[in-house]
């Protein structure tokens, strides 16, 4: 417990994660470990939660070639329900920046956005998407964000609209891009002039 809540012990936490082989532990054990983490008091520090998100999930998620197992999904949803900010900063950022299609990873991020993340974390995902070059891979994530029907902060909405306007020529024949623009105009019609 002291390793996970005290910032001076972060190298020891990294070492403990490696020693316990958390990045490769069986998924049923991962679910139990996450349940134990959620029961800790006081809560994990931001940095400890980020280290654990990286150790527990990053390798598993980036290597997905098929939908995640129910155990992995249960562990992911339970962890990100309590530690969504460090989770998004570590895991979602890595998925968004990963080159290539990453179909399973994109679907996973969409599912987390649609079903698990709190509104502030959804806004964080949107800001992360807008920090990387727009691609077909990212369009479903933006669609999932808009599907939450949340009122977006003006600065994020302005950045989204500006990005879509600037990228429109590159997506001239993209059905996904057309759907996204329609979603922006529908969901945010009271905010878009």
TrEMBL record:
InterPro entries: FANCE, Fanconi_anaemia_gr_E_prot_C. Residues 10-192 form the Fanconi Anaemia group E protein C-terminal domain. Signal peptide: none annotated. Gene3D superfamilies: 1.25.40.480. This is FANCE protein. The gene is Fance. GO terms for cellular component: Fanconi anaemia nuclear complex. Pfam families: FA_FANCE. It comes from Sylvietta virens (Green crombec). Transmembrane segments: none annotated. One of its GO terms (biological process) is interstrand cross-link repair. It comes from the Eukaryota.
């Amino acid at each position: 417990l002291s390793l996970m809540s005290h910032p001076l012990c972060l190298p020891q936490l990294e070492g403990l994660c490696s020693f316990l082989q958390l990045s490769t532990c069986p998924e049923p054990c991962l679910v139990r470990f996450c349940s134990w983490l959620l029961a800790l008091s006081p809560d994990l520090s931001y940095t400890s939660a980020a280290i654990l998100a990286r150790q527990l999930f990053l390798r598993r998620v980036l290597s997905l070639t098929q939908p995640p197992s129910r155990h992995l999904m249960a562990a992911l949803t339970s962890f990100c329900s309590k530690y969504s900010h460090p989770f998004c900063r570590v895991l979602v950022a890595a998925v968004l920046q990963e080159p290539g299609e990453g179909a399973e990873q994109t679907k996973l991020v969409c599912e987390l956005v649609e079903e698990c993340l709190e509104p502030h974390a959804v806004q964080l995902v949107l800001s992360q998407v807008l920090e990387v070059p727009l691609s077909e891979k990212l369009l479903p994530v933006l669609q999932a964000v808009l599907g939450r029907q949340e009122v977006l902060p003006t600065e994020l909405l302005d950045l989204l609209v500006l990005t879509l306007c600037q990228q429109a020529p590159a997506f001239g024949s993209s059905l996904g891009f057309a759907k996204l623009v329609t979603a922006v105009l529908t969901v945010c019609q009271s905010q878009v002039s």
